[in-house]
Design goal:
Radius of gyration of chain B: 26 Å
Helix content of chain A: 10-25%
Strand order of the largest sheet of chain A: 2-1-3-4-11-10-9-6-7
Largest sheet of chain B: 7 strands, mixed
Oligomer: heterodimer
Structural class of chain B: alpha+beta
Shape of chain B: globular
Largest interface: A-B, 41 and 39 residues
Strand content of chain B: 15-25%
Number of strands of chain B: 28
Number of strands of chain A: 11
Distance between the termini of chain B: 69 Å
Largest sheet of chain A: 9 strands, mixed
């Protein structure tokens, strides 16, 4: 199993994401350079956080035109799991692989802090090990994280169950006070209709070890690993089920 | 070869040099300098680059010590961090640029200090900043604060280096001349520390990074004069580009990893002029370079402009002959300009050409070996008056109201509104984020080891007694590290003063250096680097403001303490034997509007024992919480312990209010002195009752006074003095009210 982490010029959470997958979870993870044009052989692709190309136009805008993102369209269309974290989410939105837009925070300033998010959807490769209503404590660190969709689009993605995470309080209540950036409907993460493409503003890789404040984010990566293993088993029917460990 | 020596224009005869310095240049060269050479001497002999007024005094700082891998004189100091890692760190000021263009001045301050660490071959892993401004309610000051904070955030967040700590204080003397001091920590395998010593005749001199523009012209010289509010000062401020800065970090580390890089230095103050001359001089070699090859952002730049430009995000490398392509390929991959601009030569002669024409030919040591001055020193006249202060003359003031006022002051109030704008978690090493006494980072490659960092300085104390003020900066930093469970290991300092050419300023400078030196000796902590910033005056001079950044080692990052109470029912202890006084205190300034008093000289051995005690108690898991008693004295420290615990509790949705504390002071004299008096060497801790015997045993062994003063309980902070009428506390305030004063931001976390 190999998970690819895309490195754009200006990505700065790539190493943290590799650390969570490789050093904490013990999985194969490798950098994918932004000029690579093939994603063959990767079991999942993660667009990490950062300031791709300096975010000098709009966050994620320039990254969305890079060679690797052109390849990513085909990869996603074929059902390959794609996770965009923060700048990666912004890039997926710019690429139109996910609906909506990410606007500057309501406060007009960068925000770095822990927030809580409620799991709204569990039938995705990234949330399968979670239960609906679970509350995760994960940090945000962004200046442009206010999720926005038009009313019509909001109705559509709500109906299609594309809202994957919402900002909430410790009790799991979705309140205005728990919303760190003014996102519409407290939306923190959005999935594609099929669920295989997910974007989220909070950084699960920063919440992968208790020593740095929280290990809740690890459950998102664990979900992904479990999903890939399950798929591997399904693809190789002769493999005895007992031979592959399920976490 | 012949150097053209055109007729001197009468007005600009000496450039930035004094007449005697110009004569010295002519004597060394045996001729008049060319215009380019004159420009080089002008910046290299500026205060900013040459330390000509401070060098002699700085020699008094202790620089040797256990685990020092590189001391002062390199781009940054380095110490052994354990596990084969070297911790590289350095602090620098960017005061004048931040005064003129707050956003870019502060942003490039971050970029500049990062490159100093990068030049040691280290990956930058943490930033801290120490900021001083005028009163925040001053309409001229507010935009300055916001611009500086936004500039630090914009640069630091984008390049992906966490800002893990810092401090912000305000006083009228910083109104027109704010202080922006930024410290950076980097990590590198100890056997791979890079050097700036050029070597190997025939090796290539490689320019790497952003193109050269006209920004930052004469920045070093600008930093060496008083602010006068000239519109043209803006051209002395560089523009930062954090995106290019991030690429430069990655490209530089990748270039160093090739093994082809012999020496490296960043292009900071005085740009190419400084790097060419310092790298050559340190290596005892020369260089022959052609400015025409330098990548440029603008057309029509004169060669002198290229030589002196302080454009950001650039490095100068010496690369092994024949291996240039390896480094150039790295640069191409990161889409950065990289060009061989010349070669190292054996003879110690720096030759700078503009195409075919040599415009500079000299021994680089002439530039780096500037004259040293020993200015006159005399105690300032204000001291006598300021020290004539009698606390007994102070009118009484309601303690609860005073406490809430103090908690709201910048400097004592929570700085969360600042650091939530900084990415303090990136790189996933931050174990104790900003807001604790010291930041704690884990070392992924040397677990469970960690490092702790704190920056401290108190201009008001240094104003009243620069010798004691220098000591206090060191001791407070060490005390903060101890509270986090760290062993002090090394210091880098930033010495911010007004003009050294005024005897009273120079006196305060030497006193502060002596104070820092004495305290460092007492703690056995070496000074491995630093920066002097003079001429901080725009009309009035600033307080003498020595800032100390201290780095500490943590054996096990799992064993650290934080300020907030940990458990209801725990005993509250006061550690250390300092005698509180109102002289020079925050209380005296905030409540009575006076900056006065005579500061007691710290009992260095006693404070050193307290620091060791706190660290050992934390590392042994005896203290559930620990918090330095600093500005605002015991009352503010207790209030902070309550509020920080309350904020954690609210996060757990466990305790709707509290925990507070009930504290009784024995033998306290005047209530204001007992509550708000300040003394170095006091720490407030909390401890489960069962651990108290062990804590007391350790106290006996290390001869540190420890007294139980109360208990974590209820939802109020109640302080009583024994002997006072029963049921009549000195202070009784709800934790919620304390929290609203100290940190009005309400956020779920």
């Amino acid at each position: 199993m190999t998970i690819g982490i895309v490195v754009f010029p200006g990505s700065n959470c790539d190493a943290d994401t590799v650390h969570a997958l490789r050093d904490v979870l013990g999985q194969d993870a490798r950098d994918v350079w932004h000029q690579e044009t093939s994603l063959d052989g990767l079991d999942a692709v993660i667009l990490p956080g950062g300031f791709s190309y300096g975010d000098y136009l709009r966050a994620g805008a320039i990254a969305s035109t890079s060679p690797v993102v052109r390849a990513l369209r085909g990869y996603a269309a074929a059902g390959g799991p794609v996770l965009g974290i923060c700048n990666g989410f912004q890039t997926l939105v710019e690429t139109r692989l996910l609906p909506g837009a990410l606007l500057p925070n309501a406060a007009g300033e960068f925000r770095c802090r822990h927030v809580r998010v409620r799991v709204e959807r569990t039938d995705t490769p990234f949330t399968g090990a979670l239960r609906e209503g679970d509350v995760l404590r994960i940090p945000i660190a962004h200046g442009e994280g206010r999720y926005y969709v038009t009313d019509r689009e909001r109705a559509r993605i709500t109906l299609a169950r594309q809202i994957a995470f919402r900002y909430c309080d410790a009790g799991g209540h979705v309140t205005p006070e728990a919303n760190p950036n003014g996102a519409i409907d407290n939306i923190a993460g959005v999935a594609s209709a099929s669920g295989t493409v997910l974007g989220l503003m909070p950084h699960p890789e920063r919440a992968s070890e208790a020593i740095v404040g929280s290990a809740d984010g690890l459950r998102i990566f664990e979900s992904l690993v479990r999903w890939i293993r399950t798929r591997e088993r399904a693809a190789v029917p002769s493999m005895p089920a007992a031979a592959s460990e399920d976490r | 070869m012949a150097v053209e020596t055109p007729a001197r224009p009468p007005e600009r005869q000496f450039g930035a040099l004094r007449p005697a310095e110009y004569a010295e240049v002519c004597r060394r060269l045996g001729r008049d300098p060319s215009p380019a050479e004159l420009g080089m001497f002008g910046v290299m002999w500026s205060e900013h680059c040459a330390y000509k007024h401070s060098r002699a005094a700085l020699r008094r700082l202790p620089v040797k010590g256990h685990g020092v891998l590189r001391g002062p004189g390199e781009n940054a100091g380095a110490i052994d961090a354990g596990g084969g890692l070297a911790a590289v760190f350095k602090m620098e000021s960017h005061n004048h640029p931040s005064a003129v263009v707050p956003f870019h001045g502060a942003a490039t301050g971050v970029g500049g200090i990062i490159r100093d660490v990068l030049a040691m071959g280290a990956r930058p892993v943490a930033l801290l900043d120490s900021l001083r401004f005028g009163p925040p309610d001053d309409p001229a000051v507010a935009p300055l604060i916001h611009g500086v904070v936004a500039g630090i955030a914009a640069y630091g967040n984008s390049i992906g280096v966490p800002t893990v700590g810092g401090e912000l204080r305000c006083a009228p003397c910083y109104r027109a001349n704010p202080l922006v001091n930024v410290a950076c920590l980097g990590l590198v395998p100890a056997d791979r520390i890079a050097t700036s010593r050029a070597a190997g005749p025939g090796n290539a001199v490689v320019y790497l990074g952003a193109r050269t523009g006209r920004d930052g012209m004469q920045g070093a010289a600008f930093a060496s004069v008083e602010l006068a509010g000239n519109p043209q000062d803006r051209s002395a401020v560089q523009m930062g580009d954090p995106f290019t800065g991030k690429l430069l970090i990655e490209a530089t580390l990748e270039a160093l990893a090739t093994g082809a890089v012999v020496a490296i230095q960043d292009l900071g103050a005085a740009g190419l002029t400084c790097a060419l001359s310092e790298m050559s001089a340190r290596g005892g070699v020369g260089m022959d370079v052609d400015l025409q090859k330098v990548p440029r952002r603008e057309e029509g730049m004169a060669p002198e402009e290229v030589l002196l430009s302080e454009s950001q995000e650039r490095m100068l490398l010496v690369v092994e002959a024949g291996r240039e392509e390896e480094v150039l390929a790295v640069a191409r991959r990161w889409d950065l300009p990289a060009v061989v601009i010349g070669r190292v030569v054996a003879e110690p002669v720096l030759t700078v050409r503009d195409g075919g024409r040599a415009i500079v030919t000299l021994d680089p040591r002439y530039l780096t070996d500037a004259p040293v001055y020993a200015p006159d020193a005399a105690p300032p006249a204000y001291l006598e008056e300021a020290r004539r202060f009698d606390a007994s003359s102070l009118p009484a003031h309601d303690p609860a109201e005073a406490l809430l006022t103090l908690l709201r002051r910048p400097g004592t109030a929570s700085a969360r509104w600042v650091f939530r704008q900084y990415d303090h978690m990136i790189q996933t090493n931050t174990v104790v984020p900003p807001g604790g006494d010291a930041a704690v980072l884990r070392l992924k490659d040397a677990a469970p080891r960690g490092l702790a960092l704190s920056v401290d300085g108190n201009g008001r104390s240094s104003y009243l007694d620069p010798y004691v003020g220098g000591m206090l900066a060191v001791l407070e930093a060490a005390q903060n590290l101890a509270c986090a469970g760290a062993r002090p290991a090394a210091v880098t300092d930033c010495l911010n003063f007004a003009s050294p050419e005024r005897p009273e300023v120079f006196w305060t400078f030497t006193q502060a250096v002596d104070g820092i030196a004495r305290a460092c000796e007492a703690l056995e902590v070496p000074v491995v680097g630093g920066n002097v910033s003079f001429y901080n005056e725009a009309g009035e001079g600033i307080y003498p403001t020595p800032i100390v950044a201290m780095l500490g080692r943590v054996d096990d990052v799992g064993r650290h303490a934080r300020p907030g109470w940990s458990g209801v029912g725990d005993l509250v202890v006061l550690i250390g034997g300092g005698v509180p006084a109102l002289d020079g205190s925050e209380y005296l300034d905030a409540i009575h509007g006076r900056v006065a008093g005579r500061l007691a000289e710290p009992d260095l051995p006693a404070v050193a024992r307290t620091i060791r005690y706190v660290r050992e108690a934390v590392a042994a898991g005896l203290l559930a919480s620990a918090h330095d008693c600093a500005e605002g004295g015991l009352a503010v420290a207790l209030a902070e312990c309550c509020v920080v615990a309350w904020q954690d509790a609210s996060a757990r949705a466990a305790a709707p209010a509290g925990p507070g504390a009930r504290v009784t002071l024995r033998g306290a004299g005047r209530p204001d002195v007992a509550l708000f008096g300040e003394a170095i060497g006091r720490v407030v801790g909390s401890v489960p009752a069962g651990r108290m015997p062990d804590l007391l045993n350790l106290a006996r062994r290390l001869e540190v006074p420890v007294q139980v003063i109360g208990r974590v309980a209820g939802d109020r902070l109640v302080v009583t003095a024994d002997g006072s009428p029963a049921g009549r506390p000195l202070l009784d305030v709800s934790v919620a009210a304390l929290a609203r004063a100290w940190d009005p931001i309400v956020e779920e976390a």
